[in-house]
Structure formats: C-alpha cells, structure tokens
C-alpha cells in the first residue's frame, strides 16, 4: 500500500474524512501524539488498526469526539464527575473511562464494558471529526512497543506501507499521551498519567484520585492491570535504557565508569557538555512540560544515533513529571539504579 503524507488543508481534510467514512485508516496529529484513526463503530475498520500497529487484541482504544452531543451512543451514562472534568479539561489531553454505549464496536473496547473517551483540542483532529461525522478510535501511531510519534516523519517511519494517509500537522504540543482516568468504579482512578495531573483533577472533583500502582511500579506476576495498556513493555528504543536516580555529580561519575562504544546519556538541557559520553538532552531539569514534549523524540534520536546502552537522568514523580517518569520507566523496562 502506498502511504501519502499530505499537509493539512481543506482538500486533505476532505480526503481523510472520506477514508474514515469508508472504513479506512488515517494517521493524524493530536495535541498529545500522532494517532491512527478508524470509525469506532465499525469493527472491521478498527481491526485494521490492530493489524497496522501489531497491537495485542486485548488492549482497548480511546474514542475521540468533538462535542458533548457526540457522547450519546458512545457512553451509557456520563456521571456528575465526568461532567465536572469535561467542563474543566475538554477539549484537551484527558481520557475518561466510562460505561460503554451501544454504538461503539466491541473491537474498539477489546470486549470490555467500559470505553475510554476524549475530546481533543488539536484543530486538525477536530476538523476531521466534524467533516466526517465519525467518532474515531485512535491509539498512538507507533508500532506496538515503540515510542509514540510526535511528528509526521516519526509516524511515517513506523506506518509507511501500513495505511493510506498521514496528515502532517507539525509537532504535537504536549508530546505525551493523554491522562487516562477511570470513572467507572466507586472512586476515580488514575490509570495513565499525562499533562492533566492528578492534583488538577482532585482540585476540580474535590476528592482523592487514586493512583493505580502500576503507574510507577512494575506489576507483580499474575497481577491484573486495570488498564490493559500498562502491562506491556512500552515506548522502547532499540537500546537498553537504565534510569540513574541521584545527583548530577553522581550521574557524571557513573557515566565515566561505564563509558564505552555505543554508551549514551539521556540528560537534562545544558548538561551534555559536562558529561564523558555523547548525550541527548530531553528538557530542562526544572521543566517537566519540556521533558514530556521531548522524551519520545529523544528516544527515537538515540536509535538513529546507534546507541546500544543508554543511561537516563531520573525525572520527579509528581505533577506532569509523573507522566514523564511513567513513560521513561517503561522504556527502561523498570531498570532503575539508585546512585
Ligand atoms: O493521547 C492519547 O490518548 C493518544 C492520542 C492519539 O489520542 N492515544 C493513545 O492511545 O495514547 P493508546 O491506544 O496508545 O493508549 C490508550 C490507553 C491504553 O493504555 C489502554 O489500555 C487505555 O488507554 N484504555 C483505553 N480504553 C480503556 C478502558 N475501557 N479501560 C481501561 N483502560 C483503557
Ligand atoms: Mg500507545
């Protein structure tokens, strides 16, 4: 299959809308990462997403809408908490897991009785949804297990020959996937941290948001993931990544002791000149939003540089940093060394 990469204009939006209505795939930018869209109601179309990504069939997809009226049929009910969070954070990088409505294909939800739904703020996605009238399922546009793409070139690298169209809408604003919160149980549960933080949601809801412990730690053997996506090794570059937790001085000493051909550092802005191995920088130490924006493209740069072994500076674990740490620890297959 030939994969076209087109700039965003009226014509390419119309083409994307037409493909979606006909049950085909379209890769497109959102404010978080690039996604692969297919009509969420059309099980045969959604199956093509799983094939294009090589994604396990038991990992459910997020449904994207462009107005509150589109929730009808997608969710069975929108509880009070969902209305509060929607008013505060939609359109934007927040996914809510709610009881599934009748119109969503079981393929989209991997057979679960809940559905993840979000209203993205990126104008390209909004235009495609509006033009097509299609609420679409869209996972990140990477091959399963690879870092999520945050620009059209990285999307093309993974999806060339696997789908007919990539809309090139430039760099994604946030660079890390949406926050996923479950509102389907007794208490709100954070399933995946993102740009919308636990603290911000707690302020809006006036109650605690429980953090699913799989977010910051490895699941024990036989433990069931509340969000199936969290059980897989994820976001992995080709190199073996290890997180080093400690001061810059300790990090520098460790690198000096482990310097060798193919050994790279993944450090904060301004540090690489003072380090004994080649490094890629992923944002300033005190700027978690910049780290979120940079992390996935930095991991892909390390691949292109031919890194074999990567030692990463450790981010914080609260606020937006929780999202950065959550992705990095998966890229590192949970290898963390305390310095
Ligand atoms: O920012 C994003 O959310 C991007 C863009 C394209 O919108 N999409 C994205 O999709 O990251 P994906 O498929 O890569 O990640 C979806 C995550 C997975 O961890 C999945 O397990 C979880 O959301 N999820 C989806 N539906 C769920 C449900 N019904 N119950 C629990 N977890 C769910
Ligand atoms: Mg993904």
Outline the secondary-structure elements:
Elements: E1 4-7, H1 10-21, E2 26-29, E3 34-39, H2 43-53, E4 62-64, H3 80-89, E5 94-99, E6 114-118, H4 123-132, E7 136-137, H5 152-159, E8 165-168, E9 179-182, E10 189-192, H6 198-205, E11 210-211, E12 240-245, H7 248-258, E13 263-267, E14 279-281, H8 288-304, E15 309-313, H9 321-331, E16 336-338
Parallel strand pairs: 1-8, 4-6, 5-9, 10-11, 12-15, 12-16, 13-14, 13-15
Antiparallel strand pairs: 2-3, 3-7, 4-7, 5-6, 9-10
Helix pairs in contact: 1-4, 8-9
Bound molecules: threonylcarbamoyladenylate and magnesium ion.
Percent helix, as a range, is: 25-40%
Individual helix count = 9
- Category from helices, strands and their pairing: alpha/beta
Report strand order across the widest sheet: 2-3-7-4-6-5-9-10-11
Report how far the terminal alpha carbons are from each other. Answer: 49 Å
> Unreliable stretches, pLDDT < 50, 5 or more residues?
none
What's the β-strand tally?
Answer: 16
Mean pLDDT: 95
The distinct bound ligands, ions and cofactors come out as: threonylcarbamoyladenylate, magnesium ion
- How much strand content do the residues show? 15-25%
- Taken from the alpha-carbon principal axes, the silhouette is globular
The major pleated sheet works out as: 9 strands, mixed
Q: How do the helices and strands follow one another from N- to C-terminus?
A: EHEEHEHEEHEHEEEHEEHEEHEHE
The radius of gyration is 20 Å
């Amino acid at each position: 299959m030939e994969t076209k990469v087109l700039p965003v204009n009226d014509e390419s939006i119309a083409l994307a809308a037409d493909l979606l209505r006909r049950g085909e795939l379209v890769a497109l930018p959102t404010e978080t990462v690039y996604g692969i869209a297919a009509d969420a109601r059309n099980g045969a179309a959604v199956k093509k997403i799983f094939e294009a990504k090589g994604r396990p069939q038991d990992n459910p997809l997020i449904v994207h809408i462009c107005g509150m009226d589109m929730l009808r049929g997608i969710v069975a009910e929108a509880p009070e908490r969902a209305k509060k969070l929607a008013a505060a954070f939609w359109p934007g990088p927040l996914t809510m897991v709610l009881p599934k409505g009748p119109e969503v294909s079981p393929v989209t939800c991997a057979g679960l009785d809940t559905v993840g739904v979000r209203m993205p703020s990126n104008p390209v996605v909004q235009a495609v949804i509006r033009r097509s009238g299609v609420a679409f399922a869209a996972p990140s546009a990477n091959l399963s297990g690879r870092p999520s793409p945050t620009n059209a070139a990285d999307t093309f690298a993974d999806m060339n020959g696997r789908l007919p169209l990539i809309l090139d809408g430039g760099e994604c604003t946030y660079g890390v996937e949406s926050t996923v919160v479950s509102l389907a149980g007794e208490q709100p549960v954070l399933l995946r941290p993102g740009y919308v933080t636990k603290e911000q949601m707690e302020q809006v809801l006036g109650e605690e948001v429980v953090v699913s412990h799989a977010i910051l730690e490895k699941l024990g053997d036989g433990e069931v993931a509340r969000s199936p996506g969290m059980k897989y090794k994820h976001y992995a570059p080709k190199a073996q990544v290890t997180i080093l937790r400690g001061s810059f001085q300790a990090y520098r000493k460790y690198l000096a002791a482990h310097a060798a051909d193919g050994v790279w550092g993944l450090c904060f802005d301004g540090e690489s000149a003072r380090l004994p191995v080649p490094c890629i920088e992923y944002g300033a130490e005190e700027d978690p939003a910049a780290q979120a924006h940079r992390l996935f493209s930095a991991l892909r740069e390390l691949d292109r540089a031919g890194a074999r072994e990567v030692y990463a500076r450790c981010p914080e674990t609260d606020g937006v940093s929780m999202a950065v740490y959550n992705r990095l620890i998966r890229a590192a297959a949970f290898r963390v060394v305390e310095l």
